[in-house]
């Protein structure tokens, strides 16, 4: 190593003074980059003592990612240039320093022997700049209406960036003001945040809760030895959290609305700079929370599900949209959307009660989290439905995570001392293969889940465009159907029923029509079975009954003597309160019960005993009962005797061929004969031609209905038809 005096040469004293007394850090390096001279300011700046530094090379201070650039500067100076540059290094204690360096070659007798550098510490300036830029970014996010959790996460990112190795979390005060919930803590180990949530505000449930309680910052310099951390100490220490400084965030009434906490992995106390940084963070947090509370768009609960603590749909949607935006095309890499619900959860709810149902959901949420990776998101979409977002996975990985979820859920849950078994059906769609938008992909995952259910539950299925077209349509209908009543998309049409002896319209069959805002007109043959299966037919059926009765009332008030037939589905029929629902509709409108006909189908009467009982109840209300689609079921005419019915409707499949098929003519005429024997009124459905009508007349069919007379019409048009026919 060169002797320092030999470099500086004969004017060494002057240079030495210039060097030693310079307030800025100065150093000299030999040709290998080793320190050969450092002044006190330099030693102080980096936290090593001079002797230590003189054993080191400047490379050892470099951050790894800056080493290459530093080497280039060094080389150029050794070639005779002088250089001015910014560079980051780390101090002895690991903290980062941003430096502005002027480096010049050392010439000794015409040869370059090393480098002298003069250093200015610009860390603070950079920090200030970063803070300023960061603050602006946060404010911009607020202004643009970003979600509160995203804004809070951005505040945290900023503070974590500026502070050396602090990691932060922001808690929000719950609406009732009694507890704190995690709002954002992107760097805190999930094992910790999962366990520590819902902290009751008070002096003894940890530092954050105490900060909110005492309304002042609480500095815990060593978590392991502080009584405030008694309860959560083990988990905190296990997760590497050793110091915590919590500062309350107030609203204008001086109530704590949030707590900003910063944690370190070793015992420590805040410096003046830390305090300033925290003040900034608290200020930003307060601005953000205020803004969203003022906007009333948000309280924390708008984003997180209270029961499970999982993100709700809204936050999930935002995360998913963001993930799609960030996704860069890599072969085999996808974003997987998973949709799942618990098989037969309703049974758990119904048999064990809602409280147990809730507990089950809580357990399920925890298990879901245990089955996915840290970077994935699980959300509760409502009820027993969950959606998951898996970033950067291959199809195989998505499949194995799905299988893992199925496996962990299969294990019996011990809930409140009971062993509960749940299984799940899970659907998966992949971005970008299956769709482009979050909405589309989620929907497709849902469709795939539907497929999984059809495959016998407790399995997962990938979305498959070809196979799922039908399911998808069906599913879409189901989704739209759920909103149809509320959106007022239903209408009743009325198809005239003609008395064949008087040739007059004696009544009408009400037929449901649905015009959906996205699907357009959907025929009852497509949506009624779905409404049946999902149980939606019950509320829809009530609407039909009430609407038909109100229409009848209007017609009665106009002095018209018409009857209206209303179709009842099997689900409605076996619902205990059917008679009450009909009685209600009758009472409310005050119509003549004899004007109302209830149409049921043969299949509903399979359980003869129960069916007779129900039909009696209906009959007691004074309404008429008609058997629809007669001939298509287990047509034993003998059971008809046991039922209190008024009329039969011959199914249109017999009427269709009545004029050219002997067989159908025989069935139709046999029905007519027997029905008349039993004193029943017969109505032929689907009459389209005069030939058909002639034969029906010949066999004394009482009434007819069909396109030959009229299609089902909206009420106003039906009335016009009626007026014209008189
Ligand atoms: P349905 O009760 O047997 O109704 C008769 C069906 O035959 C109606 O079809 C009607 O438009 C159709 N139709 C009437 N005349 C002719 C004709 O001359 N030729 C042909 N080819 N068809 C004719 P729509 O309205 O599509 O209803 C289909 C089925 O959907 C109904 O069969 C009924 O089972 C169910 N449905 C319709 N409205 C309701 C309702 O309000 N409640 C319930 N539960 N089911 C309903
Ligand atoms: Mg009918
Ligand atoms: Mg029919």
Briefly summarize what is shown:
With 726 residues, the protein is α+β, with helices and mostly antiparallel strands. It contains 26 helices and 28 strands.
Features:
726 residues, alpha+beta, Beta-Lactamase, Alpha-Beta Plaits, 8-stranded mixed β-barrel, 6-stranded antiparallel sheet, 26 helices, 43% helix, binds ligand C2E, binds magnesium ion
Give a topology summary.
Elements: H1 4-8, H2 12-20, E1 25-30, E2 35-38, H3 40-46, H4 50-53, H5 67-78, E3 83-90, E4 96-108, E5 111-121, H6 123-143, H7 148-162, E6 167-173, E7 179-184, H8 190-195, E8 199-200, H9 207-214, E9 218-220, H10 233-238, E10 243-250, E11 256-264, H11 272-295, H12 313-326, E12 334-342, H13 345-352, H14 354-371, E13 377-382, E14 385-393, H15 395-410, E15 413-415, E16 418-420, E17 424-431, H16 438-454, E18 460-462, H17 465-484, E19 490-499, E20 504-516, E21 520-522, H18 524-534, H19 537-557, E22 563-567, H20 570-573, H21 578-589, E23 596-601, H22 608-620, E24 624-630, E25 647-650, H23 652-656, H24 662-677, E26 681-684, H25 690-698, E27 703-704, E28 713-714, H26 715-725
Parallel strand pairs: 17-18, 20-22, 22-23, 23-24, 24-25, 25-26, 26-27
Antiparallel strand pairs: 1-2, 1-5, 3-4, 4-5, 6-7, 6-11, 7-8, 9-10, 10-11, 12-14, 12-17, 13-14, 15-16, 19-20, 19-27, 19-28, 20-21
Helix pairs in contact: 6-7, 6-11, 7-11, 13-14, 14-15, 16-17, 17-18, 19-21
The structure holds ligand C2E and magnesium ion (2 copies).
